[in-house]
Every structure is written in structure tokens, then in C-alpha cells.
């Protein structure tokens, strides 16, 4: 295997140790179906935003990672910390 790929996989494994994994359950789906402060919000973006809201309820300092300006605008309106800032 390519040495760079091995190194990057190792970096990913170390980083993933700090992730919190959420199940997309009924609460997230129900929130994703409701209106957001800014519209339109695409379906998977709504799931992303609803997941970030659910995570922020149980984990300190959750950041919403997105480069999509519509997602960032909605996240900002929801009071989520944006990454990158």
C-alpha cells in the first residue's frame, strides 16, 4: 500500500477516536422535517443540521462542519458554532 495512504489512514483513525457518532433516530428525523430559520434547506442538509442540534444538546462545543453557504447560514441562525469559522 502507498505509504502516504497508510499515514493518512493512521491520522484518520487517531482523529476518529474523538468523534461522537449519532444514530439518525426518530428525534433527528422529526427535527429535520420541521422548518428551519432560513429556507430552503435540502433534505440531507436538514438531517445534518438536525444532527448538529441533537449533538449540541449532549456534547459541549459542537461545531457544524460545512463549506456549503446555505448550511452555514442555517447553522448560524440556529446558534451553532461554524467550522471553519
Short overview:
The chain has 85 residues and is mainly α.
Structural summary, described in words:
With 85 residues, the protein is mainly α. It has one domain. The chain is built from 4 helices and 2 strands. Strands 1-2 form a two-stranded parallel ribbon. Helix 2 crosses helix 3. The radius of gyration is 15 Å and the shape is elongated. The protein starts with a helix and ends with a strand. The mean pLDDT is 95.
Topology (elements, then pairings):
Blueprint: H1 3-16, H2 26-33, H3 43-56, E1 63-65, H4 69-77, E2 81-83
Parallel strand pairs: 1-2
Percentage beta strand: 5-15%
Query: Helix coverage percent of residues?
Result: 40-55%
Uncertain runs are none
User: How many beta-strand elements?
Assistant: 2
Structural class estimated from helices and strands:
mainly alpha
Please state the overall shape, judged from the principal axes of the Cα atoms.
Answer: elongated
**Largest sheet: number of strands, sense, barrel closure:** 2 strands, parallel
Calculate Rg over CA atoms: 15 Å
Amino acid at each position: 500500500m502507498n505509504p502516504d495512504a497508510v499515514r493518512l489512514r493512521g491520522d484518520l483513525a487517531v482523529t476518529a477516536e474523538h468523534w461522537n457518532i449519532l444514530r439518525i433516530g426518530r428525534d433527528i428525523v422529526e427535527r429535520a422535517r420541521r422548518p428551519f430559520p432560513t429556507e430552503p434547506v435540502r433534505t440531507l442538509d436538514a438531517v445534518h443540521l438536525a444532527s448538529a442540534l441533537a449533538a449540541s444538546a449532549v456534547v459541549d462545543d459542537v461545531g457544524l462542519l460545512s463549506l456549503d453557504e446555505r448550511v452555514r447560514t442555517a447553522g448560524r441562525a440556529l446558534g451553532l458554532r461554524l467550522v471553519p469559522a
